[in-house]
Specification:
Chain lengths: 395, 94
């Protein structure tokens, strides 16, 4: 099999985050004994605390500045053209500007995926001068109270300030809204916020159920009625704002009949390096597919991991596919869907994504939808995301 | 989708946050933008490297000289390519 070249690297710099969004796709159990997750629970009882910028030195076995710079150079040599700095909250890393600079020196397009907490005037300037190409800023809603309740922190007003600073510095701004049952009815207002902030792009992404989001699925999954209305609103806004704001609507896949073409195929275009240096074909793979062993950049060159490792080759191409995928005319359109979703919902990563109506396991998805849509649209409790415990690095 | 007409006097430029560069793996031109990569065909590449403040008519003129091509047919190609890029916010028209 000829191995393709990757286009984009997702650099998850840290799992520390000042927000506690229940839809987070980060693992609920952090890597290798770095955290015992004692989940704070409760929807209304959790009073939002002020979101403080997390300022971590290198913790919990996270990669060092030198190690990340080497990963960036190796990724560029492998063909990567874009890097997304993510997490957790990447601003929690004080060396972020050094990493942006390294990425620009390697000719990569640099995108910061952030909550915006911790991005003061000085830092915006430093990042711009380091060559940052674009910022994707998350919002939880357009409404302050609801947004802060979702984030589990008083963050919304600070995000509005941050958006203005990003604009003032002349850095292109994308907004990201994760859509779920509690905010989906405010889609028009959220699009309005993007217009007001003069964002270049808006991602309206229905929650995908991995990590914390899967744990909170009963509270997050929208009803069929909500989904139908949201799609109409997004479609109309896309047409109305064409050429002005680029709107990207991520479908709620449980309500689809065919699976999403996850990652454009396993090990085809994307790779993720997590905070401790594990290299993943998909950011959620380490928690969703426990029987897959992932390689680490401390032990192996990125080139070898991409081309040769078992983890990148297990689901590459179409040979691994079972029926009904193997003989399906769509097999090179949707690649059998998402391996993580197959593992999480059917117990086996090589199964057809159960979202597909041709999957023998589709009944599992239907049961979830039936349960939700037959009950009243009640508000259910969720569990807020918590950070890994701070374990000082042993030097 | 709204149809956008591209005027002869419009001055296309790369959109904010959009980079045009050579992909060192393939040697071909690509547009890089937030969360996306667009591999350019030769027509798009030749148009985009001329999006430097010139008007659409000047770009058509330059290309028709360079490739010894019929300016009328070329103008239609250029407009179609620019309209597509503009819809995707990859270029701006001044």
């Amino acid at each position: 099999m000829t191995v393709p070249r990757p286009y984009a690297l997702l650099a998850e710099l840290t799992y520390q985050c000042p927000l506690h969004c229940p839809y987070c796709s980060n693992p609920t159990h952090y890597c290798r004994a770095t955290a015992s997750v004692a989940a704070r629970s409760g929807r209304r009882s959790a009073r939002p605390t002020t979101a403080d910028a997390v300022d971590s030195p290198v913790l919990n076995g996270e990669l060092t500045t030198d190690e990340w710079q080497r990963v960036i150079r190796e990724a560029a040599a492998l063909g990567v053209l874009q890097i997304g700095f993510s997490g957790g909250e990447p601003l929690a890393r004080r060396d972020l500007a050094d990493l942006v600079r390294a990425a620009r020196e390697a000719n990569l397009y640099t995108n910061l995926i952030t909550s915006g907490i911790g991005l003061d005037d000085d830092r915006v300037r430093v990042l711009r001068d380091a060559g940052l190409d674009s910022v994707q800023l998350s919002f939880q809603s357009d409404d302050t109270d609801l947004a802060d309740e979702i984030a589990g922190a008083r963050a919304h007003q600070r995000k509005l300030d941050t958006a203005a600073k990003i604009r003032a510095a002349g850095i292109p701004l994308s907004l990201n809204f994760v859509i779920h049952r509690r905010n989906i009815d405010r889609l028009p207002q959220m699009i309005g916020l993007a217009e007001m902030l003069r964002a270049e792009r808006v991602e309206l992404a229905n929650a995908q159920f991995y990590g914390w989001a899967l744990l909170n699925r009963a509270a997050l999954l929208p009803t069929r009625e909500q989904v139908v209305r949201a799609r109409e609103i997004a479609t109309a806004a896309k047409a109305r704002l064409a050429g002005k704001i680029d709107i990207f609507y991520v479908l709620p896949d449980y309500y689809e009949t065919r699976p999403k073409p996850c990652l454009n195929g396993w090990g085809q275009r994307y790779l993720t390096v997590n905070p401790i240096g594990d290299v993943l074909p998909c950011p959620t793979a380490s928690s969703a597919i426990p029987d897959l062993r992932f390689e680490n950049v401390r032990a192996r060159a990125l080139d070898w991991i991409w081309r040769e490792s078992e983890s990148f080759n297990r689901f590459r191409g179409t040979d691994w596919m079972p029926e009904p995928c193997q003989s399906c005319p769509q097999r090179e359109i949707d690649f059998g869907g998402c391996r993580c979703q197959a593992a999480l919902l059917t117990g086996k990563a090589s199964n057809t994504d159960p979202v597909c109506t041709l999957s023998p396991n589709r009944a599992r998805v239907d049961a979830v939808l039936r349960d939700l849509n037959s009950s009243s649209n009640q508000i259910r409790d969720w569990t807020y995301r918590v950070n890994p415990k701070m374990v000082p690095a042993r030097v | 989708m709204r149809t956008i007409t591209i005027a002869d006097a419009a001055q296309p430029r790369l959109g904010r946050g959009v980079r045009l560069q050579i992909d060192s793996t393939t040697g071909k031109s690509v547009l890089l933008f937030p969360e996306g990569v667009l591999e350019l065909n030769e027509t798009a590449q030749e148009i985009l490297i001329r999006c430097d403040g010139r008007t659409v008519s000047d770009i058509v003129l330059a290309l028709s000289k360079e490739y010894d091509a019929d300016p009328v047919a070329l103008a239609a190609d250029v407009r179609e390519t620019l309209a597509d890029l503009q819809q995707r916010k990859l270029i701006e028209l001044a």
